[in-house]
Amino acid sequence: MTPVPPFLPFAKPDIGEAEIAAVVECLRSGWLTTGPRTKEFERLFAELMRPNGQALAVNSATAGLHLALEALGVSSGDEVIVPDYTFTASAEVVHYLGAIPVFVDVDARTLNVTVEGLEAAITPRTKVIMPVHFSGLACDMEGILAMARRHGLAVVDDAAHALPSTRNGCLVGSFDADATVFSFYANKTLSTGEGGMVVTGRSDVATRCGIMRLHGISRDAFARYTSSSPAWHYEVVAPGFKYNLTDIASALGSVQLGRVHEMAERRRVIAEAYMEGFADVPLELPARPASGDLHSWHLFVVRLTDDAPLARDAFIDQMYASGIGCSVHFIPLHRHPYWRDTYGLAPEMFPNAERAYRSAVSLPIYSGMTQEDVDRTIATVRRLLSA
Ligand SMILES: Cc1ncc(COP(=O)(O)O)c(C=O)c1O
Q1: Which atom of ligand 1 is nearest to the CA of 185?
Q2: Which of 95, 136, 204, 272 could bridge 296 with an S-S bond, Cβ 3.0-4.6 Å?
Q3: What are the pLDDT digits (tens) for 185-236?
Q4: Which of these is catalytic: 12, 39, 127, 188?
């Protein structure tokens, strides 16, 4: 009997001994919540992205997006433009503030929003534009920022997928957006289990996010703990949220950040192997970045073409039956009952997102994948699609 290979998951965090040691060291230190390790993680992150700006650690990208919009004054009746082809978090944070998400279709090839699509959705109530760098391919940030500034609008880019991604040599996070928000969720390119980072060059946004991430308290717990003035005293200056990141997570994050380019390079090599391995099968392959630019390859999303011998759902079933996990990014927001019914969304309004959704499959990609895992995935896809 041929041995059955172990199940290959769709995503897996890349945690080494250095990460484990950093967490153990934090556990032994006596300080678990937001403190010196979080300050250090923020310092390293800002140094990478925006040496003249600030990075604020939060406990998810969802929290970071919420904080950024709140800091920009988004409130009841305002409109925020978001892609239809995204995770629900991008729109949900708009709703938290009583504002209205306005959904736009994406480009058929890149699955990113376009300057034209965003501009066509602007109304007198628009306050913020929120591009999403789908799968880790950077959006046209220069074009989006120039257009937004012409209309007097703020830009918060959802960079949950985009570490490290560049466009024209600039890292997502280093453009002059009002805020950029990263995710460190378990399946992301840098993981702290749960976590996120808000990067901003605006000191007013940084100050407000810093206060609102911890109950609207004017002085964080570690500052109080280490201060010479009495530790018990604090002032609540706004009704904030509980969005701070723990030092346990930050200890992990700093080690992961030191490996971010090495891990990205491994993903790039896997993506190249897939591009080559799938060149002659009935798949539309993902868009590449311009030469010299980085795609984070958080996701490797292929689309089955019309001549594929299997439909998408059957293909995923067969992949699972062969021991390989896959996923779908995304089920567009117009297909979710809440967004569809609340905002009267229909597939015809988002033809590119709808078409992409029907054929999209996210294949396993993560830095811990071995060459054997990659070869097995390529061979399985080729076998299923060469019928
Ligand atoms: C595009 C996008 N935005 C935001 C989020 C939310 O990230 P988090 O889980 O860190 O809140 C995700 C999560 O996968 C995402 O895909």
Answers
A1: 10
A2: 136
A3: 999 999 999 999 999 999 999 999 999 999 999 877 667 667 666 678 889 9
A4: 188
Q: Are residues 99 and 228 in the same domain?
A: yes
User: In CATH, what number is assigned to the domain containing residue 78?
Assistant: 3.40.640.10
Angle at 183 between CA 208 and CA 117, to 5 degrees: 85
- Count: domains in the chain: 2
What pTM does this model have? Answer: 0.97
First to last CA, the chain: 25
List the structure tokens of 256.
């992961």
Residue nearest to atom 7 of ligand 1 (CA): 61
CATH number of the domain within which 375 lies = 3.90.1150.10
Which residue range forms the structural domain that includes residue 310? 260-385
- The answer to whether 157 touches 177, Cβ cutoff 8 Å, is yes
127 is catalytic: no
Quote the ligand 1 centre to 61 CA distance (angstroms): 6
66 and 164 assigned to the same domain: yes
Closest CA to 156 of 183, 140, 177: 177
